[in-house]
Amino acid sequence: MSTTPPVSTTALLSAEALKVAFPGRRGAATARAVDGVDLDIRPGEIVALVGESGCGKTTLARSLLGLVPPTSGRVTFGGAPLDYTGRALKAYRKRVQLVLQDPSGSLNPRHTVYDAVAEGLRIHRYAGDERAAVSEALSRAGLRPPERFFLRFPHELSGGQRQRVVIAGALVLEPELIVADEPVASLDASVRGEILALLLRLRDELGLSALVVTHDLGLAWNIADRVAVMYLGRIVETGPVEQLLTAPQHPYTRALLSVLPEAQGEPVVLAGEPPDPSKVPSGCRFHVRCQVLASGEAERAGVAESCRTVDLPVLNGAGEAQVACHWAAARAGESGGGSADAPLT
């Protein structure tokens, strides 16, 4: 788990009331992929965005990168709204870089490691010493001595080395923030820890901020300062990593945590698949799969009807512990604000 505190309380990157909707084909309903999100990422902070496939986390990440313009709301960087003109986006993407899940798909098999890392410099017409910049980026990514890798092709590298090349390609432009989409999902378990340690070292040495998109709460525990749990287009729980993962409030977060090896008790098996983003349920958007509602606990707490009919507010992006759940709010009221029991030791 990350322990170094953020160097600033002022947000570097923010989403404000962000919504991204995609029109349905042939008259089908609009899919609300991101349906009202506030999220701040501070300088030197690693935020993990967690949720099942289809919950909207990749669309949110792409919108933060300027790849998908929002339907409403806005993205700000350094306090200024994101400008979607071509020149402004080019300058923005020098400061905010993307690291994709599959390094094999990210690297051109016909390009050497040197060319892969130097590509960003050439796109942005770097005026300095290209060879020195590529060498430094490879060294920072853990490929030493860097000259030994210059003329290698992706197929000559291991999976971990390819991911380090992708990270070096992002670092060469000296960004302030990276967005890493499932950065270790395609790697062997023995290599995952090395890449996560690398990201933490880059944060500590360079003050680099990161948004790590993942379905794995175990990964979040090992790398993040803060976690935002996303379900059906909205963040349903957020807070400091240790507080959220040891005392989760939302039934969805509890279900995700229940399948980790450290979890006590039986895993929570959620009914069905995540609902269609073009058919968001009324009330709490999780209620159709909620184990607390199904078990009668919400009924006993007097909130079952609210779960089915009363929408919940968008959580603010400031970073304190928050949850969008009628049942959790009722429990907190009964206990005078205390947290729910933790499923982990």
UniProtKB/TrEMBL annotation:
It comes from the Bacteria. InterPro entries: AAA+_ATPase (IPR003593), ABC_transp_ATP-bind (IPR050319), ABC_transporter-like_ATP-bd (IPR003439), ABC_transporter-like_CS (IPR017871), Oligopep_ABC_C (IPR013563), P-loop_NTPase (IPR027417). Residues 13-257 form the ABC transporter domain. One of its GO terms (biological process) is peptide transport. GO terms for molecular function: ATP binding; ATP hydrolysis activity. Keywords: ATP-binding, Nucleotide-binding, Transport. Pfam families: ABC_tran, oligo_HPY. PANTHER family: D,D-DIPEPTIDE TRANSPORT ATP-BINDING PROTEIN DDPF-RELATED (PTHR43776:SF7), TRANSPORT ATP-BINDING PROTEIN (PTHR43776). Belongs to the ABC transporter superfamily. This is Oligopeptide ABC transporter ATP-binding protein. It comes from Streptomyces griseus subsp. griseus (strain JCM 4626 / CBS 651.72 / NBRC 13350 / KCC S-0626 / ISP 5235). The lineage of its organism: Bacteria, Bacillati, Actinomycetota, Actinomycetes, Kitasatosporales.
